[in-house]
């Protein structure tokens, strides 16, 4: 009897922009990678501080393809994005997040990359 892995639920496609530092120009360059299947979840957080109400969106993205390179400070855009990014401002108007942590979960029946961003 052949075992089957669990199929990960997906709800969108995404575009990853990997940050690469170019020592010659001393600027960041961006490599674009399209991923046809991912899980995108936005959690709206709010708290009251002495300075008033603070709000932030926290994004959790799960990618079933563990061969994709992803690291802190990369950007993920929801959907297919064909923008040739030179600065983060190039992504204004798109639903996006800057990655703050990445975990490669390569064990078990459901290997995936879990990325969190804000």
List the helices and strands and how they pair.
Elements lengths: L11 E11 L4 E23 L2 E12 L11 E4 L17 E10 L6 E6 L1
Antiparallel strand pairs: 1-2, 1-4, 2-3, 3-6, 4-5, 5-6
Main sheet strand line-up: 1-2-3-6-5-4
**Range of strand content:** over 45%
SS summary, helix count:
0
Distance between the termini: 44 Å
- Count of DSSP strands: 6
Q: Stretches where pLDDT falls below 50 for ≥5 residues?
A: none
pLDDT averaged over residues: 92
Gross morphology: globular
Main sheet characteristics: 6 strands, antiparallel, barrel
Oligomer: single chain
Class based on secondary structure composition and strand pairing: mainly beta
> What is the chain-wise order of helices and strands?
EEEEEE
Radius of gyration computed on alpha carbons = 16 Å
Helical residues, percent? under 10%
Would you kindly provide a brief summary of this structure?
With 118 residues, the protein is mainly beta. It has strands at residues 12-22, 27-49, 52-63, 75-78, 96-105, 112-117. Strand 5 (96-105) and strand 6 (112-117) form a beta hairpin.
Describe the structure.
- By secondary structure, the chain is mainly beta.
- It is 0% helix and 56% strand.
- The protein contains no helices and six strands.
- The chain has a six-stranded antiparallel beta barrel with strand order 1-2-3-6-5-4.
- The N and C termini lie far apart (44 Å).
- The model has no long low-confidence stretch (mean pLDDT 92).
């Amino acid at each position: 009897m052949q075992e089957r892995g669990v199929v990960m639920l997906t709800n969108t496609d995404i575009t990853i922009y990997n940050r690469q530092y170019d020592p010659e120009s001393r600027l960041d360059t961006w490599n674009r990678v399209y991923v046809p299947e991912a899980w995108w979840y936005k959690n709206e957080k709010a708290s009251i501080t002495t300075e008033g109400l603070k709000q932030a969106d926290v994004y959790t993205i799960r990618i079933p393809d563990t061969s994709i390179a992803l690291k802190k400070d990369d950007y993920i855009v929801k959907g297919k994005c064909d923008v040739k990014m030179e600065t983060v401002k190039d992504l204004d108007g798109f639903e996006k997040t800057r990655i703050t942590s990445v975990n490669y979960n390569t064990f078990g029946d459901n290997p995936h990359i879990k990325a969190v961003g804000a």
